[in-house]
Every structure is written in structure tokens, then in C-alpha cells.
Amino acid sequence: MPLTGVEPARMNRKKGDKGFESPRPYKLTHQVVCINNINFQRKSVVGFVELTVFPTVANLNRIKLNSKQCRIYRVRINDLEAAFIYNDPTLEVCHSESKQRNLNYFSNAYAAAVSAVDPDAGNGELCIKVPSELWKHVDELKVLKIHINFSLDQPKGGLHFVVPSVEGSMAERGAHVFSCGYQNSTRFWFPCVDSYSELCTWKLEFTVDAAMVAVSNGDLVETVYTHDMRKKTFHYMLTIPTAASNISLAIGPFEILVDPYMHEVTHFCLPQLLPLLKHTTSYLHEVFEFYEEILTCRYPYSCFKTVFIDEAYVEVAAYASMSIFSTNLLHSAMIIDETPLTRRCLAQSLAQQFFGCFISRMSWSDEWVLKGISGYIYGLWMKKTFGVNEYRHWIKEELDRIVAYELKTGGVLLHPIFGGGKEKDNPASHLHFSIKHPHTLSWEYYTMFQCKAHLVMRLIENRISMEFMLQVFNKLLSLASTASSQKFQSHMWSQMLVSTSGFLKSISNVSGKDIQPLIKQWVDQSGVVKFYGSFAFNRKRNVLELEIKQDYTSPGTQKYVGPLKVTVQELDGSFNHTLQIEENSLKHDIPCHSKSRRNKKKKIPLMNGEEVDMDLSAMDADSPLLWIRIDPDMSVLRKVEFEQADFMWQYQLRYERDVVAQQESILALEKFPTPASRLALTDILEQEQCFYRVRMSACFCLAKIANSMVSTWTGPPAMKSLFTRMFCCKSCPNIVKTNNFMSFQSYFLQKTMPVAMALLRDVHNLCPKEVLTFILDLIKYNDNRKNKFSDNYYRAEMIDALANSVTPAVSVNNEVRTLDNLNPDVRLILEEITRFLNMEKLLPSYRHTITVSCLRAIRVLQKNGHVPSDPALFKSYAEYGHFVDIRIAALEAVVDYTKVDRSYEELQWLLNMIQDDPVPYVRHKILNMLTKNPPFTKNMESPLCNEALVDQLWKLMNSGTSHDWRLRCGAVDLYFTLFGLSRPSCLPLPELGLVLNLKEKKAVLNPTIIPEAVAVNQEAANNPSSHPQLVGFQNPFSSSQDEEEIDMDTVHDSQAFISHHLNMLERPSTPGLSKYRPASSRSALIPQHSTGCDSTPTTKPQWSLELARKGTGKEQSPLEMGMHPVASAPLSVFTKESTASKHSDHHHHHHHEHKKKKKKHKHKHKHKHKHDSKEKDKEPFTFSSPASGRSIRSPSLSD
Amino acid sequence: MAEAAATAGAGGSGTRSGSKQSTNPADNYHLARRRTLQVVVSSLLTEAGFESAEKASVETLTEMLQSYISEIGRSAKSYCEHTARTQPTLSDIVVTLVEMGFNVDTLPAYAKRSQRMVITAPPVTNQPVTPKALTAGQNRPHPPHIPSHFPEFPDPHTYIKTPTYREPVSDYQVLREKAASQRRDVERALTRFMAKTGETQSLFKDDVSTFPLIAARPFTIPYLTALLPSELEMQQMEETDSSEQDEQTDTENLALHISMEDSGAEKENTSVLQQNPSLSGSRNGEENIIDNPYLRPVKKPKIRRKKSLS
């Protein structure tokens, strides 16, 4: 009775209060992964796994594991051959012949397919039957050892092979392979329980070429040569219980560097990059020290490995005791810009080692805790390393991002709870994808999810103090490490899993504070708060009347009730007030402290205790208010639009010491193009003590203000004299000093100022000649010979500046762009670009930053009509073999071209690349860029929008991207952007015709109703225990729900689909299987099948036929193919009958349609549903899905 | 006969120079000698009373005379070299003549015969002396410690330098201007050259030469060129940061040393590894402690009848 084992567990899972209850009827304690052959030439892997499993229920006879892509040769349990079924509904989400093209339908079907194999629901693609000989053994709950031989051939996901096509052995060529993927993707390269909640100890063995190194999790126990001495085997042991999803592998001819500060840390990089590796990792020990200190906990693993590989899936991927990085993070000491970014990546990965790898999660809905904690401690590291300003700036940036995203898409939910499984309760109905599984999530949503998670952690910190926060983390870690050392008590291991409730409980235990309202607001609920604030000063009462409104009706917003901090800077000092935001109170009276309004010659105290002199002449003589800030500590996830006078913003910019306040005032000043604003911004620019990022954004604001004031602007172009003063020679002001980037702040300012200046426009809306000459001179006199640092980023920004100076060409009636009518300024720009781009070929810059900028600039010239628009150049740079940054820049240009020129050809070219490019990141990025800059959107008429494109994209997300979750979700995003949720408008609409068509096709193959009856009858005959009442039973889901809801036609389909799949996977695999099978043919594979399965009472036998078919289909061996005519022969008898009945039924509806508009949907729906179920019935006969194709082979191979 | 002897020397050297027959003056010289010999033969014939002679017979006689004189010269040289000298003396000639069966005693009488005809010496064309190389100043005499037979000093101009000064460009602006335009010109010329010699791409369909872009070529290993600093930059780095980064490079070198030794050690077998600590230990004691599993030697396979796992 496997059902009883699975279902209660699933029910209880949600409430993690009293420990963890596994969704599986067994406990995995140890797993061996042995890969004994890796062929780089063929990109194949051969190996086996052995799982040590303890049953937790007596009558366990099915074991479900995860496995994708792998070809499974043989499964043995305790040395007995075991039968298995391989079924992966995610390979093809909707059936290929389905004419459904609406995204709602797809998303539901996809979510259903994913949960049908979701290990957290006790499911899996691979279902292994426990041989009957072992049943007794199982009933005693004794150990089972499942041994699976598998191979992988040309994996498209999970493992990525990089094999450069040069001469030499694989090691000389720098060929390498590494595991990759989004969330739990380990099933792509070996069979396992691919869940973050199933922990076990590991033994990992990899036999590789003697010149290669295999890096994996845990301790390298020994390395042994094979007998022919040409290969070596790396033996790893991971004694800390770890989830399969945190297992990783990297094999290549790596150069090895033992960290000089920490000998248990080893770094690996590709050949020739050792000097870079040395420099890049020289900082890592400080990160270690920091985390260990704040967490008061040793790094949990006995060793740590960093591997830098090419063609990385993501820049940083953290796995148990090792992290895989993109090789492009490596840099030399000469590179400024990359250094902080790389260090951030290192710190991020290390934070995830503690929370994410060592401490894992109970379920997907607890993911936010891990992401939140790791993001939060990473933030603490940022604060310590880069300073408070950088930290606050980062928090502000992240806050702005999440706010913008939520307002755009309608909310990010950190802790989704799925009660009852009804779609109506779907907490994320505003989204075009399901948030029930990580694998259905849009990548952008997931990044925003992580962003929100760490911001919420910070809110919790604000509430309970950092000290308590760190104590909670420490508690989690020490619990986990105690549990991890319990080698043989696997039930203790669940202490290493974190759950939302467990985390909250820890918080309340440690801090004694109730943070439930906070959790409810930000974790259990999606949306951000949108404040509008304005004020008036009541002179009589000396009171500040503050009005704070909220918008909680727009999508992505929520209502905020609770305390809100307001800081008022008055003449006498800065005062904090805490307002209570309540349902109906909009106005708040805040008494002012400053009685003496204008006390001359008095210094004004600031928030931080500093006292400064201010020129108060600008302010309103009646009011003591200098500026007002709402929620200065960012303790609410909010967007604030606050109105105050321009001089107040200017005071705020000049005198408020908080970088966030400065940033906000810069943003606000854009709306006040006055000489006073100009002065305030210029002063900030000149102020050395001011945070460099603030100064950088002041540059852009100044450019905007200058453009708004163009008619009244006096003096040289904005920033020019400033730049001259700061960076040019004293004796000759038109020549820039030779580069010296020792001071990073001024380096960044020097880089940014020209870019902002290039945005200046004169009265004719052209970039002033003076500015262009100035930038060209900067390029001309750039001299880096005496500089300790590389100037590649600086030069790249100069090209960006040139691009910024380009304005649309004055064109007479679409004349063809030729050299002769080229604008002389553009000619100069083009000359520079040509020279830079050509020099890059001879002396390439770091990460080819200059090429990237040149390509962007060329696209700008094309777009503005100076140069003929042509994607050929970009296409050549987008080819495989160029550095990834160049490719992305070139592809971005092609995407833009596709949009502007509405080129079907380029769109096809891009789509082909999405399908065929060897680098997963590039494919993902193309989809991402197409989504960001779509050739057309759902509300647009476009010649590109046609049926073929719909089909193509549909196919891409339906089956073409099954090997990469991230890619599939990207395709879904694109489909949504192009066509929206419902049926694409470019498709021929009449649904009824469609039904008829479908029917014609179907009718021949597969009738629905009657064969079921037959099957059940047959089954009943074969199997006395099945209930006779089930004959002719209708699908309870569809019928009951048709009654309830009539408007959403797609939901029904998906419901049916979900239930279908769920049933299919939860059920004992194939009650009807034995019927169609000659007893002799497969006895070795499924020994004594019938006795075991058919005795199981079937609760919903109407599915049994499908299952039977599915079963046969999936397991079809060539031998059995011949059986089908026999099986289908009786069916054909009923075909006509059913067609006829269908027909009449249909006519019936047709009539009603005119009369009862209301009922239309319902009926239509019923129809569709029937057809869908027919489709599914048909499925086993088609063998179109790769899963079936593969599994057809697998059993025969094992013979 | 005195002339004959005199011409013998000249003939000897003449044949030698004639044998080269490479330069025009030598050819001339050969012809002149031949003509002189013909004059000699003719005068001897006149002396002997011939009125006239056929050209062929004169030629034959000339040939004979030349051979004879050449033989005298050759033999005389042999004798002189035989006695380890370089210059033939009178006695060498005498011995030669004796050896050739010539009665030497008759020679003075013959030379003083009355009817002898005196032929004028052939017009000596000025030896085309190689013009003396430009002399600038006086050759320096040998300093006392150099023996005088050593070759003279070369002309002073070959080793004496005369520094000339032009007013250096001290104007910063001009300097920068110059450096900038120079670099720009070099870059432009170089890239144009590269563009001319290789494939190009163009932004304008109708014009491929004004803004030639060197065609994009994919690399087999793109990250190497993208990440590794170019040699130029490396060089620059060494120049600029030698002072500031001393400490750092020291530690880095140490690390480098470790890893090099380590990666080396990995390939070696155990015995070498055991020597290593003693080598490096003198430099840094800490290295002994490093026990990283990736640095341990690879084990030899155990001889087993059956592999247990794989």
C-alpha cells in the first residue's frame, strides 16, 4: 500500500513544528556515486550509484527516485534484479499534438508535471519495484541497497562539457566538465533523491585521465592509479549528511593552488591561469575569518575547494564544501573594477556554504530562510569590507529593485503555503507561472525572491537586534553540527534542515520578541508598500502637519499598518518621530522643537552629532524645517514619494550624512532645474569626503538639469571645468593628466563624468561640439604608461561616452546611409571606434571590455541612422568562440535589431541559437534579452507574430528545453511577453473547428469512454478484488468542477491534467500491465509482477487503462511492439460508436450556444476536457516523447 | 736578361692576379704584361736579325717566354719557402736557373752585350689605390703598454663620439601632444596594415576601406586572451609596481614556490617528496606542515584479483 505511506507524510510536511516528516516511505542514509568512465570526446559518462535505504513503512514495494537524462541499464536491490519504470512528464509538458496554445494551460500543466516528479512530494521519474523476495525483509524495515548502473550520453543539462577544438590530448586542450543547474538539478547526472531535504553521507569516486583532477564534495581520501597507470581514481568521502542537490563535480586539467593562509582550502583553475588564481583567492581567508567570527562557528566542513571553470552556468554555485565559479571572475592585480565584484562572489558563495549547503531546507517554501540568512550575512560582510556607505547604498539598490519588480509584476511571495491544492487558492495568481516549485519559477522572479529574502532578514534584525540575530544563526548551526556528527542516527539529521517555523521559533526563543506581524506582512504575504507623503507647516501651532497616503490597490502593493519612523531636521537639530500608521489616519501632527526660528550664527546640529554652518538664506523664513525623511532606516519594504521644496532637497543633499538620503535628494532634484540645484550638485561633486557613488549619480543628475536649463545655462558645459580642475594638467587644461588610478574614488568619478557629460544637449538637441571635442581629447591624450592599473574599463567608458553623445541623424526621406553623407562628428567617433576595435584584436583588453563598448556604440550609431542598420557584424561577434561578454553584447545588438527592424530572419537566427548554442548561459541570456526587449508584445500588431512562431516557441518551452529548468522558464517568460496568458491573437480562433479537427484525428485512434469500460471489465475479470461499480465511472474532477466554475476554461484542463499525473505517479505503477504482456517476455525485469500489484486495491480505476497504456508505452520493448495490434483491436470496435456519440453531443452544444451564453464555457470546457483525456490516452501509442524513447531501450539493454 | 728577370717577378705575381680574373684591373694588367712580353720577343727577334715574323710565331714565342719566366718564379718561390723565408733572394734565383740548366755565368755578359735593344718600360698605369678612408683627426699612437707591432688604432671617427645637443622639448603640452599623436599614428598604421592583410568587415556596404574593421575571429579558448594580461601590460606592471609591491610579491613568490613544488611533487613518487621538505625547509619551516590531499602522491593500485568497487 504505497499510497498510505506517501499521503499522510505529505499532509504533515507543511507544519514542521515537531521535526521533519519525510515525504518518502524510506530514509536514505548513504549513497555511493561511482563514475568510472568519462569520455570527453563523446561527452559521455558511465557509472553506478548505490543507495542505502531504510524503509519506514512496512509494505514498501515501490521506491521512487529522481533521474533525468540518464540511461539506466540495470537496477538491483540487495543483489536482486528489480524492475523499474522511467517516466518523466516534464520532457514534454503538453502533448505535442495538442493544439492548445495558451500559456495558462501550459503553466498549469507544467506545474503538474513538475510536481509529478517532485521528490518533496515523494515522487520521482524512476520508479523501482522492490522484488517480492525482499518483501519480508522490507516488512522488518531492514536495509535495502539499491544499485543502479547508468550512463549519460551528451548531456544537455546537469553536466556541462567544455572541449576546445584544438590539437593535443584532452588535458592539453583544457577540456573540462562540471555539474551545473538551477536549484536541485543533480538528477540530471546521476539517479538520486534530488531533494534538499533528504540528507545522507556520501562516497564519491571518479576515475579520470591521469592528467586530470576530479574535484568533488568532502574529503579526498586517496588517489589511486588504475592498473594500466593511465588513469587515476579520486576517492571522496563526505561524512556530513548532505542532500543530493548539493553534490557537485568538476573534472579538468586543473592547476592546483593550496591556499597559503589556510592549508585545508584548495583552489583550482584552468591551465595558464594560476597567477590570476593566486591573486584572486589571496583575499578569501579574510572572508572565512569574518563569517567564523560573526557566527561564532567554525566552517562546518573539513575542507573547502574553489574551482574556476569556463562556460559557467552561473557565476557562483555553492555546493557542499566546494564552490564552482566562472573563470571570468579571475583577475590580476591590475584590474580595479572586477576586484570588488569577484570578492563579492567569493563571499556570497561562502555564506551559502553555511546556509544552503551545510544547513539545508525542509521544503521549497522554506527556501527564503536560507537565501535570507546567507544574503544577510553576506550583507554584514559587505558592511565590514566596503563600509557602511556601500552597505546602505546596496540595501537601497536592492530595495529599489524589489519594489520596482513587485510593482511591475504584482508581488513576490517568500513563504508560499499551498492549502488543499486548489488552484483557486493559488497565492500567485497574478503571475504567469506557478511558484509552487523552484523549477517553474521565472529566473527573474527567483533573483528577486533572493533579494527580498535578505531584505526581510534585515527587517527582522531591525526588530530583534543583530546580536540576537547572530545568536539564532549560531543556534541553527550548532544544532546542525551536533546532528551531523551523529553518524549512525539518521533521524537526527533532520536537525540540519531549516524550516520557516523552526526558524521563527528560534527567534522567539532567543529574543523573546514576537515578530509574527512582521512575518505575516513580508513573508506570508506578497507586495510592497507605496507611500505618498506631503506636509505643511503650521506656524501658529509650531507643528508639522504630515500627510502620508498609501496606495494599496495597485498590483504588487499591500497595506501597511504599524510604526513608521520620520526624521525631521530642524534648525535646532534632527529629531526622530515614530508615527503609527493606521487604517484611517492620514494626517500626523509633529510638534517642532525649534522655537527660535533664525538664531543667527548658530551651528546646526545634525543627526550624527556633527554641527555645521549652513547658509540658511535659501530657506523659508517662517519655517524651521530643513528637510524631512520618511522611513530613513528602510525598515519597511516601500517606495516613498515625498514632496518637499527644492531648497529642502538641496539642504538634504548637502548636509544629510546618510548616502541613501543623498541619493534620494539627487533623484528628487531632477525635477528642479534651477541654478541652486546646479550649485548643490556641483558642490557634492567636488566634495572629496562624499561617497563616490553619490557623486557618480550627481553627475547624471547634473547633466539632466543642464539639459532642462539649456536656454538659461551660463558658462562652459556642465562638469567640464570641474573635470578639468580635477583631472587635467595645470599648465595645459585641455590635456588630461597621465593616468593614476591609485585613488579609486576619483578613478570612478573620472570614468563617469565624461559619460554623463556626453548626455548634455544644446538648444538644437545636439551634443555640444565642445563636449565631443573634449571627450575625443580625453581619448587622444589618454596615457597609461605610468599607471599601476589597467585602464581598459576607463577606455571602455570613454567609448560609452562617445556613444552617449550620438543624436539621431537628420535624414531626408529614408535616404540610404553612405559614407558621403556621414556627419563629420560621427566620422570622428567612428574613427575612434574603428581604431579601438582593431587594436583589441592585437592587444586585447581584460574581459574585452573595449570590444563590448565598441559593439554597443556601433549599434547606437546604427539605431540613430548614421550607419546602415545591419546585424551581420554583430552576428559574427555572437558566434561561439568569442569571449562571453562580447557574445552577449553582440546578441543584445541583434535582439535590438530584431525589434527595430522587425526582422523575422534575425528572430529565427536567435531562436536557433537558443536551441543549439553550446553555452547554457548564452541561451538563457538570449531569452532573457528577448524578454526584456521583445520584438513585439501581446497588445501589438506585428508582422513577426504568426502561427509558425507561436508553434516554434511553444515547442521550445514544451519539449525543447526540458534539460534546463532555467531555460524553460525563460522560454515561458518570453512566450508571456509576446503573447500573454491567453491564446495568442495571431492564431486562427474558432475553437469549435479545432475541436472537430481534433476529433477526427482522435476518433480513429482512441475513443475515451467505452474502452475504459472494457478495460475495467477486463480488469475486473482478471482481478477479482477490483470494484465492479467503477465501470463507466466518470472523472470526478472534471464533472464536479464544471459545476463550480464556469469562467476559467483552462483551469479545468489543468486540473484534469494534474490529477491525472498525480494519480498516475502515486499509484502502483501498472495494474493492467500484465494483461498485455506475454508472461514469458519480461519475467526477469518485473518478476512476479501481477501478484504484487494487482492485489493493491485501486481507488480510481478509471485511470487504470491509461496507466496500463502508459506503462506499456513507457516500457515497451521491441518484443512487445507487436502486441499492440492485438491490444487495440477490440478498441476499434468501439471507435465508431464513440465518434457518433461525440458528434451528437457536439451538435447539441452547438445549439445551446446561442441560447445560453452563460453556459457556453462550461460546455466548451467539458469538450475540451474530454479531448484532453483522449489525448492522454493516445499518448502511449505515439512514442514521441524522448522519455519513452529512452526507456524503451533501457530494459532491453540490461538483458 | 735583367728585364726578363724583372718581368719574371712581375709575371709570377701577374699569373696569380690573373688567375683570379675577376676584376677588370687584373684583366688590364694581364693584357699589358702580354704586350710587354711581345715587345721583348720582337726586340730579341730583331736583335737576332729577323726582319719580320708571323703573328702566330711571335705568339708562340711569347707563350714560351712566359712559361719560362713563370717557371723561374715558381721554382724560386719554392726554394725560398723551402728555407722558411717569404721573399726570394738572389741565390734562390740562381739555384733555380742552375736547376733549369741555365749557365748563370753567361748572364752578365749577355746583359752587357753591345747590340742589345733597350725597350722602354711599359707605361705604369697608376695603381688604382683604394682611396684612403676618411680620416678624421689623428690616429692615436699606441699607449706604452701595447707593443708597437700591434695594429694601429682605427680611425678616430669609428670610436670617438661627439655629443651634440639640441634644446630638449621641455614644453609639457608639446610632449604630450607628440606622444599622443605618435601613438595614434602607430596604432592607426598598424591596424590599417592588419586590416589590409587580413579579412575585414565593414559598416558601410558601399565602402570597405574607410573604416576597415579587422574581422572577428573566434578563439578556441576565448578566456585566455580575455583574462590574461598582455605581455605589454605585464612589463608595465613590473616597471611601475616594483617598489610598492615588494612585500606582496615576496609572499606571492613564496606561494608560487609552494605550489610549483607541490605540483611537481605530485607527479614525482614518494622518495622525491620526502626530500622536498629538507630542501624547502631551510627557507620556510611552515611548508612542512602543509598536508593537502591534492598534494599527496598518487597511490599505486593494489594488486588484487578482483576490483571490489569499480
TrEMBL record, chain A:
Keywords: Nucleus, Transcription, Transcription regulation
Domain Transcription initiation factor TFIID subunit 2 TPR repeats: 646-1004
Domain of life, source organism: Eukaryota
Region (Disordered): 1-23, 1067-1121, 1136-1199
GO biological process, one term: RNA polymerase II preinitiation complex assembly
GO molecular function: chromatin binding; RNA polymerase II general transcription initiation factor activity; transcription cis-regulatory region binding
InterPro entries named among the record's database cross-references: Aminopeptidase_N-like_N_sf, ARM-type_fold, Ig-like_TAF2, Peptidase_M4/M1_CTD_sf, TAF2, TPR_TAF2_C
A GO cellular-component term linked to this record: transcription factor TFIID complex
The protein's role, per its UniProt record: The TFIID basal transcription factor complex plays a major role in the initiation of RNA polymerase II (Pol II)-dependent transcription. TFIID recognizes and binds promoters with or without a TATA box via its subunit TBP, a TATA-box-binding protein, and promotes assembly of the pre-initiation complex (PIC). The TFIID complex consists of TBP and TBP-associated factors (TAFs), including TAF1, TAF2, TAF3, TAF4, TAF5, TAF6, TAF7, TAF8, TAF9, TAF10, TAF11, TAF12 and TAF13. TAF2 forms a promoter DNA binding subcomplex of TFIID, together with TAF7 and TAF1.
Quaternary structure, from the entry: Component of the TFIID basal transcription factor complex, composed of TATA-box-binding protein TBP, and a number of TBP-associated factors (TAFs), including TAF1, TAF2, TAF3, TAF4, TAF5, TAF6, TAF7, TAF8, TAF9, TAF10, TAF11, TAF12 and TAF13. Interacts with TAF2C1. Component of the TFTC-HAT complex.
Protein name listed in UniProt: Transcription initiation factor TFIID subunit 2
Native source organism of the sequence: Rhinopithecus roxellana
Lineage: Eukaryota, Metazoa, Chordata, Craniata, Vertebrata
UniProtKB/TrEMBL annotation, chain B:
Gene Ontology cellular-component annotations: cytoplasm; transcription factor TFIID complex
Keyword set includes Cytoplasm: yes
Renumbered residue ranges of the record's region Disordered: 1-29, 262-310
Biased composition (Polar residues): 270-283
InterPro entries: BTP, Histone-fold, TAF8, TFIID_su8_C
Entry annotated with the keyword Repressor: no
Location of the Bromodomain associated domain: 29-106
Subcellular location: Cytoplasm; Nucleus
Keywords: Cytoplasm, Developmental protein, Differentiation, Nucleus, Transcription, Transcription regulation
Assembly and binders: Component of the TFIID basal transcription factor complex, composed of TATA-box-binding protein TBP, and a number of TBP-associated factors (TAFs), including TAF1, TAF2, TAF3, TAF4, TAF5, TAF6, TAF7, TAF8, TAF9, TAF10, TAF11, TAF12 and TAF13. Interacts with TBP, TAF1, TAF6, TAF10, TAF11 and TAF13. Component also of a small TAF complex (SMAT) containing TAF8, TAF10 and SUPT7L. Forms a heterodimer with TAF10. Interaction with TAF10 is mediated mainly via its histone fold domain while interaction with SUPT7L is via its C-terminal region.
Protein name: Transcription initiation factor TFIID subunit 8
Species of provenance: Rhinopithecus bieti (Black snub-nosed monkey)
Top-level taxonomy: Eukaryota, Metazoa, Chordata, Craniata, Vertebrata
